[in-house]
Amino acid sequence: MKKIAVIGAGAAGMMAAYAAAESGAEVTLFEKNEKAGKKIYITGKGRCNVTNACDVNDYFANIIRNPKFMYSAIYDFDNQAVMDFFEQKGCKLKIERGERVFPVSDHSSDIIKAIFFAVKDAGVKVLFDTGIDNILYEADQVKSVVTTDGDVYEVDAVIVATGGLSYPTTGSTGDGYSFAKASGHKLVQSYPALVPLEIKEDWCKDLQGLSLRNVSVVLENIPDDKKAELNDECAGKTKKKKVKKVYEGFGEMLFTHFGVSGPLMLTASSFYEPGTNMRIHLDLKPALTFEQLDKRIIRDFEAGLNKNFENAVSGLFPTKLIPVMVKLSGISADKKVNEITKEERQDFVKLIKDVQMTVTGTRGFKEAIITRGGVSVKDINPSTMESKHKKGLYFAGEVLDVDAVTGGFNLQVAWSTGHLAGVSAAGKEL
After folding, report:
1. Could you report the per-residue pLDDT of 366-416, keeping only the tens digit for each?
2. Is the pLDDT score of 320 beyond 90?
3. What is the average pLDDT across 140-153?
4. What is the reported pLDDT for 240?
5. 8 Å CB contact between 352 and 325
6. Distance from first CA to last CA of the chain, Å, rounded?
7. Which of 298, 207, 225 is nearest to 261 (CA)?
8. Which pLDDT belongs to residue 230?
9. Spatial contact of 249 and 203, defined as CB atoms under 8 Å apart
10. Other CB atoms closer than 10 Å to residue 350's CB: what's the count?
11. Rounded to the nearest 5°, which phi and psi values hold at 114?
């Protein structure tokens, strides 16, 4: 019977421990916190978006970095397998808009209870308040783990499922990166991902708490003009660098006291490059072309020729947004609509189709749902999740350089990589 140590009792760690024990291994699960699943508890605003019910082949289009690496893991333990697992363990699930899957109770604690009881029922020994200080090797083979208290556990394999750097209060403090680096693995620079964005424009604060649905955004990378001009001059060129579109999406967003959040903006944040100039283009009426929106506004103006501009556009926006859009338009709020020129009206249409915001940064790891970057997948066998440098060393979950958009896809990455690491470490043939 193989002895396996799993480090971290999050989604990937608990699934790995369960899968390894069910495959016949003797498993010890080490968790430095006082309880399991602290990050699961706060996911999905406390509801836990456990997976996504889309066609399994559509999963890879929703994984931003290294989707091909996930082929074996996803097909080994896909979204249907995850749903079946929780249903069989007594946690009923439901499917909501966007194929998002949640527990019927809307309580993430029910997901934690289901998998934790499964772990215990499988015979896994769980040690809380027990961190791992070091992993020891002999001739590039895992030999033992050493706890922060100095206790040594001899094992045949170790599964590192310590998470990344997001929400550090849950215990995600980069321990896995230290284990990886010490064992010769390359680390890809880590950044906050699925994180609210900070915006330069002050008018965003006036919209705090306003949620918008069915809007579209484009996030673009703007080259530094001075640097671009200098580079072009040195190269004997006059052509400036082009603005680069890095993300385009449709959905729901939220204005905050510092900028923007909500599913659409969180996904956009995963494409944000720290240290670069980036701009958001927000289309408030993506379902209408410029011409259609212009005709709509003409009809509104004709229906109230003697109305003030501010009152004539009240049907276009939520109440909180009206004064901000009027101010951005440059048209006086009390100007009569019959005095508004064609040029002013069409400039207003352009504004509605392209409200621009300057991104100054993110809210950091403290508010990031996940971590972008981590252990390079080039150093990991995708068919087993085993290290290519150390035999018996496996990685699973957010510690890896794999991240996805919102909607349950990141938790699926955790369940799938955890399950594959568990069965592989136990020596079970897939």
Report:
1. 999 999 999 999 999 999 999 999 999 999 999 999 999 999 999 999 999
2. yes
3. 97
4. 56
5. yes
6. 18
7. 207
8. 43
9. no
10. 14
11. -60, -50
Query: Burial of 329 by CB count in 10 Å (0-12 exposed, 13-18 middle, 19+ buried)?
Result: buried
Contact 421, 395 (CB under 8 A): yes
What are the residues whose beta carbons fall under 8 Å from the beta carbon of 242, sequence distance 6 or more? 223
Q: Which residue from 5, 3, 18, 123 is spatially nearest to 414, judged by alpha carbons? A: 18
Give the whole-angstrom CA distance, residue 51 versus residue 58: 13
**pLDDT tens figures, 34-69:** 999 999 999 988 999 999 999 998 999 999 999 999
Q: Are 361 and 274 in contact (CB under 8 A)?
A: yes
Can you give the length of the chain in residues?
A: 430
Of 277, 261, 285, residue with least CA distance to 219: 277
pLDDT bin (cut points 50, 70, 90) of residue 275 is: confident
Listed in order, strand segments (DSSP E) in 85-195 are 93-96, 100-103, 125-127, 132-138, 141-147, 152-154, 157-160, 187-193
Give 102's strand partners: 94
Taking the C-alpha atoms of residue 40 and residue 111, their distance in angstroms, rounded to an integer, is: 8
| Dihedral in degrees, nearest 10, Cα atoms 244, 246, 249, 253 | -100
Please answer whether residues 94 and 102 qualify as being in contact, where contact means their C-beta atoms are separated by less than 8 angstroms.
yes
Contact 357, 247 (CB under 8 A): no
What is the Cα 306 distance to its own chain's centre?
49
More confident residue, 170 or 196: 196
Global pTM value: 0.90
The superfamily in CATH containing domain 196-363 is rRNA adenine dimethylase, C-terminal domain (1.10.8.100)
Distances (CA, A) of 167 to 193, 250, 273, 316: 11, 26, 20, 38
Q: Is the separation of the CB atoms in 298 and 239 below 8 Å?
A: no
Query: In Å, how far are 57, 161, 339 from 27, measured between CA atoms?
Result: 32, 14, 77
Of 103, 106, 97, 67, nearest to 85 (Cα)?
103
| Rg, Å, the chain Cα set | 26
pLDDT for position 366: 92
Q: Sign (positive/negative) of CA torsion 154, 159, 160, 161?
A: negative
The domain 3-191+372-425 having CATH identifier 3.40.50.460: the answer here is no
- pLDDT, residue 170, reads 86
Q: Where are the domains of the chain?
A: 3-191+372-425, 196-363
